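Office hours follow-up: a student asked to see two folded examples consecutively, so here they are.
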Amino acid sequence: MNEIIVVEGRHDYQKVKQVLPEANILITNGSAIDMTFIEQLKRLSEQHDIIVFVDADNAGERLRRIISKHIPSAKHAFIERNLSLSSNEKKVGIEHADGYTILEALKLKRSAVSGSDITPHFLLEQGLIGENESRLKRLFLCEKLRIGYVNGKGLYQRLSLFGITEQEVEEVLYGYESS
């Protein structure tokens, strides 16, 4: 396996190892990531694909941004928040997801690419920002595109990061209008 999966903590590590025993996994030890770790990832990224696989919470998003900034070639795997909730629904994390969900997320990882024609005006036209129902539409869109839920500003950045086009967004939102 020529991939290195980056997770936040040891419970995430144990869960991914349980599902993929042969996987190469590195732990950030939480959101307090330091430059030594980033430098290690940079060196590893020269010969391995780096897959950022962090929790669907603020700390995870912070890690995703930091790693993406320093390693633009990093790939990203996402698990929907509702599929990574603890049994009491108070905590969110990869360690709470089932094996199938983890495998699917890693199989459907995304790479950063260029070529998005998305603009903030387009997001407004589509009702993804600035309306009462915008949050629900964004949630639907993010789940269907498997890019992790983000707010309006984050949506613009995330769609641009992955090169998602207006046409792709419109096709997904057609399903929202039909439901």
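And the second, which I mentioned at the end of office hours:
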Amino acid sequence: MATDRRTLLSDAALDVLADEGIRGLTHRAVDRKAAVPPGTTSAYFRTRAALLTALVTRLVQLDQAELQTMAEQLPPFRTAEELVDGMTLLTRERLTGEGRRRSLARYACAVESVRDPELREILVPRENAGREAVRSFLTERGVPDVENRTHTLLACLDGLIFDRLVCGGEVPREALEGLVAATLR
């Protein structure tokens, strides 16, 4: 039961962060969003740092689950066009609906992690099905320095998502095609 309550509060904290930004993330705001009695959030997460750590941990869980589900639904990338299709799908997921809300929270947490090594450690890019799919695609094409190229491609993709989150609109397919072409060169 405590785990369910912690998940409920972490999800509510994600919503508060997406709606109100880092300054709006308070124990009281999470209590209101979760529709629990006042003081509930602080009973589970005594400090703001503990609340933020729980939020970031939950965010990573949700992101990893999303990437795993996408990998299970898509066939392995055989062509550059299929890789671009997968990247297009991911950018749409990250820029609309709940994915957009998680993206807003993710970038706010990334900025906070600059000053907080514990958060930074949680947010460090980790192995996941999406990263493995890109790595396999590049390996099969004989691309040199696969690890760095995978990291660079995904970091650039993340930057494009951030740009569209701030400026609005979709990531242009041509931009994704250019990233893939540059990675394969």
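Two things to take away from it. The chain has a mean pLDDT of 93. The chain has one domain: 48-184.
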